[in-house]
Every structure is written in C-alpha cells, then in structure tokens.
Write a structure and sequence with these properties.
By secondary structure, the protein is an alpha+beta fold. The protein has 2 helices and 4 strands, in the order αββββα. It has one domain. One of its GO terms (molecular function) is oxidoreductase activity, acting on paired donors, with incorporation or reduction of molecular oxygen.
Length: about 90
C-alpha cells in the first residue's frame, strides 16, 4: 500500500505550490539573477515527471518504489520541502 500511495503522490503531488521561498540575498543561477526579496518556487511537476529521474514518468507504476536505487532526496517531494514534510 505504501508504494501505491507514494506513486499516486508522485503523479499528483499535494504540495505542488507549497515550495515558495524568499531569496535572502541577491544571487545568480546560471544566467538568471535572483534578487533579494524575490519569491522563488520549485516546479514539483517538472521534477516528478522528469525522465532522467523517473523512467516512463507518466505511467502509474508502484513497483518503481521496489528499487534500492538511490535517488536525490528532492526527486520526490509531494508535500513540498522542509523539516515538517513526509
């Protein structure tokens, strides 16, 4: 059952818009300047549907959670990211 819930949350994350943070100091990410005070948000759907992280990402496959393969800790964040999630 745990695998089914995890896979459902990968496809339909509840915290898709709960990942906003305020930039604390001006910085450059690649060629994009993010200024102090700007709101930054992670795109959960792009991560959860990334073929580099999830083979055949649009397919509902609870068995993908059988793997002992290590994924990046933020390859799956259905409730957002932070100390009080999952």
């Amino acid at each position: 059952m745990d695998k089914v819930v995890k896979e459902a949350l990968r496809l339909y994350p509840l915290g898709a818009f709960a990942n906003s943070r305020v930039c604390m100091k001006t910085t450059t990410l690649g060629d994009i300047e993010v200024r102090e005070g700007d709101m930054v948000q992670a795109d959960v759907f792009s991560v959860h549907y990334d073929e580099n992280l999830w083979p055949d990402p649009e397919r509902f496959d609870p068995d993908r959670w059988n793997s002992e393969e290590k994924r990046h800790s933020l390859a799956w964040f259905p409730f957002g990211a932070g100390p009080r999630t999952w």
